[in-house]
Amino acid sequence: MKKQLYLIGIVFLSLFSACTEKVDLELGETQTRVVIEGYLVTEVDSSYVRLSLTQDYFNPVAPVYIPDGTVEISNDQGTVMFNYVGEGLYKGPAGYIPDTAKVYTLKVVVDGKEYTSTATLYPMFEVDPVLQFDYKPASGFIDEGYAVTYYSVDRREDEIYTRFNFGQNDTMFDQEILFTNADLKKFERVPFELPFYRAQSGDSVMLEFRSLDVPIATYFNALANLNSGAPGPFQTPPANPPTNISGGAVGYFLCADIRRVGQVVP
Fold it and tell me: Which of 115, 160, 226, 233 sits in a 20 to 30 Å window from 104, CA-based?
């Protein structure tokens, strides 16, 4: 029996010593690819396209921007050129605001290679400008205060996503909500209470809505799943979320109608 315990002890010591052995791996450099961040929104002078290059995941450096690309955005009414303004950013002419209910095509040319993407700029659903405040006592981990409810009407036929965020007193919370109108009642005025939130008298409550088509919503869903894993040996390996850009680039082309509602709690 003592001999068996002695042998088991040797095995365990061998295993623990193996766990501390240093292993050097030869990791090759990743292939450099063009990164496109396309952001077309219905707020004046807020649309842009940023061009850069990917970096080695294990050896990141300062961003490498692309200053000599060609960027244009078109729909059935014409083409708008985006010009370089610095730090990888390309912007449209002063005062530019895209129209809703249009399909837009992004074309980027870098070193003679063309990258394209198509996205739909859907209008947001209608949101009442007046919010509803209902005082409620403390419940569980939620403090006492005013529950905040907004009312909306969705008259759109297609499946459209909304990227929603809210905040108070000039600070937006870091908890964006992505949902589809496929789960909402159409052509009816419906309420939505902000989850797990209570405002206090005098607070300024801000709501922000952005419409998204299905491909870009899929991109953000995949991005959230990639960032949700806890670090450790079984963490999902880093990967690029599914892009809506063709030609071999990574990134996204987003079209969004933005609506903001703000009100001070009485």
Answer: 226
Residue 177 is part of which domain span? 126-211+259-264
User: Residue 183 — very low, low, confident or very high, per pLDDT cuts 50/70/90?
Assistant: confident
CATH number of the domain that 172 lies in? 2.60.40
The residue that leads in pLDDT, 24 or 124, is: 124
Mean pLDDT calculated for residue range 122-137:
96
pLDDT at 31: 79
Query: What's the total number of domains in the chain?
Result: 2
One domain for residues 207 and 159 = yes
* Statement to judge: residues 109 and 217 lie in one domain: yes
Look at the block and give the residue holding tokens 């859907």: 122
Task: Specify the pLDDT at position 90.
Answer: 98
Nearest CA to 176 out of 214, 199, 210, 227 is that of 210
Residue type present at position 82: F
Task: Say what the pLDDT of residue 222 is.
Answer: 84
HSE, CB side, 13 Å, CA atoms: give it for residue 146.
19
